[in-house]
Inverse folding.
């Protein structure tokens, strides 16, 4: 009897064992190979995208500095940059199908490092070695720290892999940790949006936090869409599932609103501040979303998690040092501000501006008239209406002009 019952017991326990194994993260060498493929695709994509953006910027600068009447989209340089940009974005998109989300997102520091190196190589000014090192020492240190942080991220990144099937994505979507995370994120997003729109709190942290919260949902949906496409290519069709199109619509919508807030931030703040603060906030939010939705760190030991966090911190510091050294643009002022001139009158009475008086005449944009110059070279002067005394019926002008003698 016992011998007859043992095969039936083994058959009943077999499906439970296989189901338990499918939930656990992979620990074989193939999962590390997938991590390496995803990391290389992400690094390649960010590197090519950085080259493409600098190539398009070079096309705009070249047209602005020449007398070429062509538009920028009619040049081969701009189209080459656009082709490389599409190629780089495809590489980054494909990387989400192989490696965990928490590993791919911090690798965007590669684009910052590449932009810094390209900017140093293509410097037009000639610097002495000492001045060059003094000016760009922070960039070199930042690039080194970003490379070290990237190495730690790839080495100690999460190793959890799961097939992005419609069933798995739906199960993660309705899990209570992700629902709780979404509730907190929606509340925080609404509060930030209220202070930004109603209270006019145009702080860079508030705007970039809005971008980071939207970006965390963007990368979650990107991984779902890319993973389902990869599973469909491998033979199991997933494109006929409604969850695929739900994720696709969410990906496009969050990306559009994210770009809108980024454009508003670029109008108010410097691009270097946006790059550093935005990278830190977006990476933190994306890792939190990946750990909650895809359970990236499930089954990882404490050492790997600590080393991964250390790699993130080092990459954050490297990006901050790189963007810290960028030269801020100085706005061009074509005219002289009258209130900034010492000893000049600048009075305002009920919205009527009173121009300063100098030598009984005033010329716009000039400190004083030069009577010795020919008439054709002298700037245009405004007529002076002197105050009349003794006539009570005549209304006086709203300002008083004092005469200056030639001796003065």
């Amino acid at each position: 009897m016992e011998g007859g019952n043992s095969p039936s017991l083994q058959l009943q326990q077999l499906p439970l064992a296989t189901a338990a194994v499918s939930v656990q993260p992979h620990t074989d060498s193939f999962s590390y190979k997938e991590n390496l493929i995803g990391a290389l695709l992400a690094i390649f994509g960010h590197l090519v995208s950085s080259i493409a953006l600098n190539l398009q910027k070079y096309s705009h600068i070249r047209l602005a500095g020449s007398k070429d009447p062509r538009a920028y989209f009619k040049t081969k340089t701009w189209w080459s940059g656009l082709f490389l940009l599409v190629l780089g974005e495809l590489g980054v998109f494909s990387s989400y199908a192989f490696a965990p989300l928490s590993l791919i997102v911090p690798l965007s520091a590669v684009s910052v490092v590449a932009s810094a190196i390209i900017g140093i190589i293509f410097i037009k000014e000639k610097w002495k070695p000492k001045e060059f090192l003094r000016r760009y020492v922070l960039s070199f240190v930042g690039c080194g720290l970003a490379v070290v942080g990237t190495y730690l991220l790839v080495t100690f990144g999460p190793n959890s892999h799961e097939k992005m099937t419609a069933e798995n994505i739906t199960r993660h979507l309705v899990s209570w940790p992700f629902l709780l995370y979404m509730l907190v994120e929606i509340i925080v997003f609404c509060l930030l949006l209220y202070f930004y729109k109603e209270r006019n709190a145009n702080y860079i942290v508030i705007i970039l936090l809005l971008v980071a919260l939207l970006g965390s949902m963007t990368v979650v949906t990107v991984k779902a869409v890319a993973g389902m496409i990869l599973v469909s290519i491998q033979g199991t069709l997933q494109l006929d599932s409604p969850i695929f199109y739900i994720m696709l619509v969410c990906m496009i919508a969050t990306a559009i609103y994210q770009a809108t807030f980024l454009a508003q931030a670029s109008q108010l703040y410097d691009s270097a501040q946006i790059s550093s603060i935005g990278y830190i906030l977006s990476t933190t939010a994306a890792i939190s979303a990946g750990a909650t939705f895809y359970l990236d760190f499930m089954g990882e030991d404490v050492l790997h998690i600590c080393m991964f966090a250390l790699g993130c911190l080092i990459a954050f510091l490297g990006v901050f040092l790189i963007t810290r050294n960028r030269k801020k643009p100085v706005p061009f002022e074509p005219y002289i501000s009258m209130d900034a001139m010492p000893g000049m009158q600048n009075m305002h009475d009920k919205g009527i501006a009173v121009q300063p008086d100098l030598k009984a005449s005033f010329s716009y944009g000039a400190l004083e008239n030069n009577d010795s110059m020919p008439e054709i070279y002298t700037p245009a002067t405004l007529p002076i209406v002197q105050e009349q005394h003794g006539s009570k019926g005549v209304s006086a002008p709203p300002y008083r002009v004092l005469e200056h003698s030639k001796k003065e």
Observations:
- DSSP finds twelve helices and two strands in the chain.
- Residues 162-295 form one domain.
